[in-house]
Design goal:
Strand 8, helix 7 and strand 9 form a beta-alpha-beta unit. It is globular, with a radius of gyration of 24 Å. The protein has 16 helices and 18 strands. It is an alpha/beta fold and 596 residues long.
Length: 596
């Protein structure tokens, strides 16, 4: 029977991608549908029957409201094999001769369907990427203003039998980029570099190092033309760039997205140090953010910060974390030092969007006096008691010193990167691994897992508790911290839990006085929806309607009864969360998309 338009069948061609590293198109054949098993049925039982009433669509249908997509962690795996064992990272089917203690039910190999397997250490099959692309094209391309894509498109390097190569990382980015460019032909897409988009994963040398240059240039080619031409030299230098994504309706200004290279702040990156040294690549990126914030103020534009690894004390080196918090939450000086406007103004950071952890959470980030080390405090006290800028902040504002040279030679002009910039030597620092690998041994007769990768891989058990303690610490400050921001982690496409993405709603134009949200500044986040794909059920269907491949799991305002996503609303919600055991239980459940 012929499939209706919008359906995927076993013969539906999948999205081709052009890989310079293989020299041919990458296609994935959709394999036969497996019978539904029992391993994950009890884990996803609530999901199979879960629905949410669309109670707040009318209040978000105003012409003043814009929307954008945040998608992250696609982890494309062309080697994914339907019916494979999970402890082989879904790369090999069970051997004919099995060990005596082999338990197929626990391994879950019978459930590795064509769209992936939830709650296992496997990456995304091509079929999932294509279905996601087709769904976004049909359902969202005409409804969105822009797309935020926060990295990690390469597969994990967890299979010793198939070690991941640099070319395969780029191939994963080729496929992901082609999928998103196919879905969104007319709106801006902003890519970002993740810790699995570099080789070895987590490790990225300082700007100017041959491997860093090779990585940045290969990713820029893979994502082309998503990075603006005038930002290519900046990306070739440090792996970060700026892109205007939307202009506001009825007024000057708009939103500029800053795509950050969080690997230069990441503790797990053993190739660079913290953000104290003058030649630190992490410090250079902080200086670039400050430069872009001053530029945004001059152009009357707000900012979205996007990156892969969430900024917190566990993920970032201490000097980089307090530097990031200080940079994105402090006031900035006037546009010009000789300007008659002597006021200081906080640039509106519209949102801070991250991925990496595969969960659905948010957290506070803010400037605190104790983050300023004693050396910096002494410099402030002895050099100029009225100027509380640090030395590198003054260099950026006055376009002097090393950062002034970067502004002139790389950051603000479309010219070839100058080789005269002093490059730091590679240094060894503490190494923290964030992605535990799957280890197994294989003999001629059978595969024996050393670590059973089908055990649910999740964040530390105290992850949600640590967030709650952070909320409590923020709320009990006296006086309250005047410089607070909110960082959000969006759930991932890779089925670490279940494939998911977020749709954000924001104020694109100013409502008339008296109308809803008229008191909020343009650019304020209003709400977000989380969409998920029930691949446990989808894997059992011969025909898939891509228009309903993803369905809405919940809307933030409906679930938590808040009016908008301003700082004040987040603070009120955090206070309610700490006082309600039932609300905390629901928060924990939605953090892991209902799977725990």
């Amino acid at each position: 029977m012929a499939a209706r338009k919008g359906q995927l069948t076993e013969t539906t061609p999948l999205l081709p991608t052009h890989s310079k590293h293989r020299g041919k198109r990458v296609f994935a054949a959709v394999a036969a549908v497996l019978a539904a098993g029992s391993l994950f049925s009890y884990l996803l039982l609530a999901y199979c029957n879960y629905s949410i009433a669309d109670t707040s669509s009318k209040r978000l249908s105003s012409a003043a409201v814009g929307r954008y997509l945040h998608i992250t962690d696609l982890h494309v795996d062309p080697n994914y094999m339907e019916g494979a064992t999970t402890y082989s990272q879904c790369h090999r089917r069970p051997p004919h001769v099995l060990p005596p203690d082999y338990d197929s039910a626990k391994d879950g190999h019978a459930h590795t369907g064509r769209f992936g397997i939830p709650l296992a250490k496997c990456d995304s099959p091509i079929a999932l990427i294509n279905a996601t692309s087709e769904h976004l094209k049909r359902e969202w391309a005409h409804k969105l203003d822009f797309v935020i894509w926060t990295g990690d498109s390469g597969r994990h390097d967890g299979d010793p039998e198939q070690p991941r190569t640099f070319d395969q990382i780029i191939q994963g980015n080729d496929i992901a980029s082609a999928a998103l460019r196919s879905a969104f032909k007319k709106i801006p897409v902003v890519p970002n570099i993740g810790n699995n988009d570099v080789s070895p994963h987590n490790e990225l040398a300082a700007p100017g190092h041959k491997r860093a240059c090779k990585t940045f240039r290969a990713l820029e080619r893979s994502w082309r033309p998503l990075i603006p031409k005038d930002q290519v030299p900046t990306f070739h230098y440090g792996g970060y760039f700026a892109k205007d994504v939307v202009d506001y309706d009825g007024r000057k200004g708009g939103i500029t997205a800053l795509s950050l290279n969080t690997i230069y702040w990441y503790r797990a990156n053993a190739k660079v140090g913290g953000c104290r040294a003058k030649d630190s690549p992490g410090l250079a990126q902080l200086a670039w953010i400050r430069y872009q914030m001053r530029r945004a103020r001059m152009r009357n534009r707000d900012i979205i910060l996007l990156g892969h690894v969430l900024p917190n004390r566990d993920n970032y080196r201490p000097s980089c974390y307090h530097g990031y918090a200080r940079t994105v939450t402090q006031t900035v000086p006037p546009p010009a030092l000789n300007s008659s406007d002597s006021s200081e103004e906080l640039v509106n950071v519209h949102a801070q969007l991250f991925g990496h952890s595969n969960v659905d959470v948010w957290a506070f980030v803010g400037q605190e006096a104790k983050w300023i080390n004693s050396h910096d405090a002494l410099l402030i006290a002895t050099e100029n008691v009225t100027d509380k800028r640090l030395w590198w902040e003054r260099e950026v504002d006055e376009e002097s010193g090393r950062f002034g040279k970067l502004i002139r030679d790389v950051w603000s002009t479309d010219v070839t990167m100058h080789a005269a910039i002093n490059q730091p030597d590679e240094r060894a620092w503490e190494d923290m691994e964030d992605d535990p690998q799957v280890h197994f041994t294989e003999s001629a007769d059978h595969i024996v897992p050393v670590v059973n990768a089908t055990v649910k891989q999740s964040l530390p058990s105290d992850f949600v508790e640590s967030l709650l303690k952070e909320f409590e610490r923020v709320l009990v400050q006296n006086p309250p911290n005047p410089r607070l921001g909110v960082t959000t982690i969006s759930p991932s496409i890779i089925p670490k839990y279940v494939p998911s993405f977020r749709i954000f709603h924001y104020l694109r134009s100013q409502p008339a006085q008296g109308e809803r949200w008229w008191h909020l500044p343009v650019g304020t986040l209003l709400d977000y929806d989380v969409y998920w794909a029930n691949i446990h059920k989808l894997n059992t269907k011969a025909q898939i309607d891509v228009r309903s491949f993803f369905t809405r799991l919940y809307r933030f305002s409906d679930e938590y009864k808040i009016d908008d996503l301003s700082i004040n609303s987040y603070l009120k919600w955090a206070e309610r969360l700490l006082s309600s055991k039932a609300l905390r239980k629901r928060f924990r459940s939605l953090t892991y998309l209902g799977t725990q």
